[in-house]
């Protein structure tokens, strides 16, 4: 699966210049690549972001989240979202538990045991 150059370029704009509030990425099946589907303007909200994700299709997205810390400091964190609604078409019918892991400790045996219960 290829990733269109625009995906990285728009992300770098979001990160460096805060040009966008969010970016929604779509897998373009005919082109066999990930493309930018939607760009959220800086003034758009989390509600706008959530509304831009389809109810029955998977997407990837990044969201620039502004918040205030307990010490009253204005901060921002960029979140990566793998959107996979229950109503989306799935190739592997019968999956009972989804597990996202970014580190081996997030998928050790104890995690499997706790998620199985």
Give a quick precis of the structure.
By secondary structure, this protein is α+β, with helices and mostly antiparallel strands. The chain contains three helices and five strands; from the N terminus they run βαββαββα. Strands 1-3-2-4-5 form a five-stranded mixed sheet.
Please characterize this protein's 3D structure.
By secondary structure, this protein is an alpha+beta fold. The chain has helices at residues 5-17, 46-51, 109-116; strands at 2-3, 22-28, 33-40, 59-68, 74-83. Pfam families: Cofilin_ADF. This is ADF-H domain-containing protein. Belongs to the actin-binding proteins ADF family. InterPro entries: ADF-H, ADF-H/Gelsolin-like_dom_sf, ADF/Cofilin.
Number of DSSP-assigned strands: 5
- Give the overall pLDDT as a whole number: 93
Question: What integer value in Å does the Rg equal?
Answer: 17 Å
SS field, number of helical segments: 3
Q: Major sheet: order of its strands? A: 1-3-2-4-5
Unreliable stretches covering 5 or more consecutive residues? none
**Which bin fits the share of residues in helices?**
10-25%
What structural category do the secondary elements indicate? alpha+beta
Shape: globular
Distance between the termini: 35 Å
N-to-C series of helices and strands: EHEEHEEH
What portion of the residues fall into strands of 2 or more residues? Answer: 25-35%
**Describe the biggest sheet?**
5 strands, mixed
Could you list some keywords that capture this structure?
globular, single chain, 5 strands, ADF-H, ADF/Cofilin, actin-binding, 117 residues, alpha+beta, ADF-H/Gelsolin-like_dom_sf, five-stranded mixed sheet, ADF-H domain-containing protein
